[in-house]
Amino acid sequence: MPLKKLLLKSGVNKENTRYTNENGWYISDKVRFRQGTAGTANTGGGGGGRHDGTGGAGGSGVVILRYVTAEYSGTRTETGSPSVTTSGIYTILTFNTSGTVTFGV
Question: Is a pLDDT exceeding 70 seen at residue 51?
Fold first, then answer.
C-alpha cells in the first residue's frame, strides 16, 4: 500500500466541530493558550498565542543558581542585586534582572 501525504492545518480550532474541521486539530492536551496575553514577569514564561497571530510578549527571564555552601569557601561578587537565600545545605542566587556573579578562589 503506498503512503499518502496528509495536509494538516496548524493550530487547534475549537470554533468548529470535529466533523467540520476537516484535516485540522479539534482536541488537544498539554497545550497552553493564554488569550494572547503577555507572559508573567520574572518567570521566563512565554507569551500566549492566539488564533489570529497577535500573541502576547514573553515574560522576562529568571536565572537561579544553586551550589553547596560547604563546598565553596572563596569569595563571591554579584552585580544586579540577586536574591540570596539558603535552603538546607545550599546557597541559592536568584536573578530577576541582568546581573553577573563571579566566584574567586
Answer: no
Residue 72 CA: distances (Å) to CA of 11, 33, 41, 67, 92: 49, 43, 31, 8, 13
Cα–Cα distance between 66 and 87 in angstroms, integer?
Answer: 10
User: 3-class SS at 12?
Assistant: strand
Which stretches of the chain are assigned E, i.e. beta strand? Answer: 63-68, 76-79, 83-87, 90-95, 100-103
Cell numbers for 40: 508573567
- The domain ranges of the chain are 13-61, 63-103
Residue 73 to residue 16: CA distance in whole angstroms: 62
- Mean pLDDT score of the chain: 74
Query: In the prediction, which pLDDT does 34 show?
Result: 47
Grid coordinates representing 20 are: 467540520
Q: pLDDT band for 7, please (50, 70, 90 cuts).
A: confident
Flag whether the pTM goes above 0.85: no
